[in-house]
Specification:
The chain has 2 domains: 95 residues, no CATH class; 60 residues, no CATH class. Helix content is 54%, strand content 0%. It contains 8 helices and no strands. Helix 6 packs across helix 8. It is elongated.
C-alpha cells in the first residue's frame, strides 16, 4: 500500500526482483527460444500483481521492458545485439511478433479489469464502496481523480481514460 502519489523509488524492488531471478538462471546454457519462453512466462508475471493496483511510472515500465529485452538478446554475459526492433517483438504472434507484452500495455490492461468491474459488476462490495465514495453513484465513466483520491483510484481513472474509447 502506498501513501501519497506513487514515486519511482516505490517500485524499484520490482526491477531488483526481476534481476535477482535472472541471476539464479544459468543463462549461458539457454538458447534464445528458451530465454523467450522464460521471459514471457516468468519475467512478465513478476510485476503483474503490482500492475493490477497501481499505475507504474513510465521509467519503471521502461526498465521492465529493458530487463526483458536484454535477457532475451544478451543473456548472462550482457553481450549481443538486439536483432529485431522491440515494437516488432512486442506484437502478438499472429501478426508476426513474439508475443511479449510491453509493460505499459500490460499495466493498462490489468487496471482495465478493475475498470470493467466498475462498469459491469454493480453487485460487488468493493465496486459499491468505490462508486459511492468517489463518484456518488453509478456514473463511473464520467468520474475523475481528485487530489484526495487514493493512489489505486487515481490509477483506475488513468486506465479508464485510456480505455474509454473502447466503451463508446
Amino acid at each position: 500500500m502506498l501513501k501519497g502519489s506513487p514515486k519511482r523509488s516505490n517500485f524499484h524492488f520490482i526491477i531488483e526482483k526481476m534481476q535477482s531471478r535472472l541471476t539464479s538462471w544459468k543463462n549461458r546454457l539457454l538458447n534464445k527460444t528458451c530465454r523467450l519462453t522464460l521471459a514471457t512466462s516468468i519475467l512478465s508475471s513478476i510485476p503483474s500483481y503490482y500492475m493490477q493496483i497501481n499505475w507504474l511510472p513510465h521509467n519503471i515500465c521502461d526498465n521492465i521492458d529493458q530487463t526483458t529485452r536484454n535477457f532475451i538478446w544478451r543473456g548472462a554475459r550482457n553481450k549481443g545485439l538486439n536483432l529485431v526492433n522491440w515494437k516488432k517483438i512486442a506484437k502478438p504472434r499472429h501478426i508476426g511478433g513474439l508475443g511479449i507484452r510491453p509493460s505499459r500495455e500490460a499495466n493498462t490492461w490489468l487496471l482495465g479489469k478493475l475498470v470493467w468491474d466498475l462498469v459491469q459488476s454493480k453487485n460487488k462490495l468493493w465496486v459499491n464502496l468505490r462508486s459511492n465514495k468517489y463518484t456518488g453513484g453509478p456514473n463511473f465513466l464520467h468520474a475523475n481523480a481528485h487530489t484526495n483520491s487514493s493512489p489505486s483510484w487515481s490509477s483506475i481513472i488513468r486506465a479508464k481514460n485510456i480505455l474509454k474509447n473502447g466503451y463508446y
